Amino acid sequence: MLLARPAGTPAREIGPDVDINTTNWIDLINPTHDEITKAETLLGVHIPKQEELEEIESSSRHYERDNCLYLSTPLVRRADDISFSKPVGFILTEKRIITVRYTDYFAFDLVGRKLAEYPAGKISPSSTELLVELIEEIINRLADILEGLGRTLDTISRRVFNAEQPRDRARVGAMLRETLRRLGYAGDLASTVRDSLLGIDRVRIYLEDYISQSLQKVKDQGTSPLPTRDTAGKSPTPADTFKSRLKVAGRDIASLSDFDAQIVSKVQFLLDATLGFISIEQNDGMKVLTVASSIGIMPTLIAGIYGMNFKDMPELTWKYGYPYGLTLMVLSTILPLFWFWRRGWFGTR
C-alpha cells in the first residue's frame, strides 16, 4: 500500500488525485515489488526492499545516496500473546520523508493523525521534523511495552511466590507450566525490545551527526538543507531544536535500555525460581513413591518368610501364629509411616 500523508489532510492511497509535490510524507506499508517500482518512478529515489532493510551491518543500515539519507532498524511489534520484529526503513530527502514498513505500528499512525490535523495556514513540518517525531513516538511506544512487561512480571512474581498455592498437584503443575510459558514470552519480548532500542539509537546517532554536518556546511558554504539561524541570530534554530530533541531521545533510550536489562534479570530470576519450585514438586512426588515402596518392604518380607512353610517353623503349629504374623505386618507398616511423618515427608506435625 502506498499512502500519501500531506499536512492537514487525512492519509489516502496514492492515485491520480494526489499531488506528490505537496506531500511531505510517503508511507509504504507492506509494499509489493510493483508498488516499490511505482514509488521509485514517482519519487525519483531508490526504495530499499525488505531484504535490504534486514541487513545487519551498519553500512547497509545507515548511508547517504543521491543526496538522500537512508536509515533502517528492526522494530518490535506486539499483538496479543505474540511478538515479532520487522524491519523499518526511513528515506530522508530535502522535501519529504519516505517510510517503508512491513506491518502496522501505532507510532506511525499516531504521527500520521497529528499530521492530518495540522492547522491550515501553518508551515508544514519538514522531513527532518517528521523523522524526529517518529523516533520520539517509537521510543514512547517501546517504553509502553516495557512498562506493560514490567507489570506482567510483577503479576507472575506474586503468583510464583504466593504462600497460598493450590494443594492439588495437577493444578500446581499446570500453574508452573503456564508460568514457564509466560516467562519465555517475556524474555523473548524483552530481547526483541532491546534490539529495537539499539537500532533506533543508531538511527538517532546517525541523524544527529547528519544534522551536525549540515550545520557545518552552513559555516563552510553558507547553504544547508536545514534552517540554521533566524535573522536576529537569537532564537534557537530548527537544527538546534532537532539536536536537542535527539539528545533527550538518547537519554530516554539509555534509561529504557537499563530498564530492559533489569527486566531480563528479573525474567532469569523468576525462571530459576519456577524451575526450583518444579524441582520441589518432583522431590515431593519422589518422596511419596519412596514412602509407598518403603512401607511395603517389611510386610512383604514377613509374609515371604512365613509363606515358606518349612516343617520346623514353630509358628506354623502355634495357636496365635496367624494373629502374630498379621500384627507384625501391621506394625511394620505403621512404624515406617510414623517415622516418615516425624521427618516431615508428608502431612503436618
From TrEMBL:
The record's Gene Ontology cellular component field reads:
plasma membrane
The scientific name of the source species is Gluconobacter japonicus
Taxonomic path? Bacteria, Pseudomonadati, Pseudomonadota, Alphaproteobacteria, Acetobacterales
Assign the protein's first listed, main location to one coarse class. membrane
One Gene Ontology molecular-function label: nickel cation transmembrane transporter activity
Q: What does this protein do?
A: Mediates influx of magnesium ions. Alternates between open and closed states. Activated by low cytoplasmic Mg(2+) levels. Inactive when cytoplasmic Mg(2+) levels are high.
Ranges for region Disordered:
218-240
Its UniProt entry gives the catalysed reaction(s) as: Mg(2+)(in) = Mg(2+)(out)
Task: Name the chain's protein.
Answer: Magnesium transport protein CorA
TM stretches of this protein: 288-308, 320-341
Localization recorded for this chain is: Cell membrane
Bilayer topology: Multi-pass membrane protein
Keywords from the named record: Cell membrane, Ion transport, Magnesium, Membrane, Transmembrane, Transmembrane helix, Transport
Q: Which family does the record assign? A: Belongs to the CorA metal ion transporter (MIT) (TC 1.A.35) family.
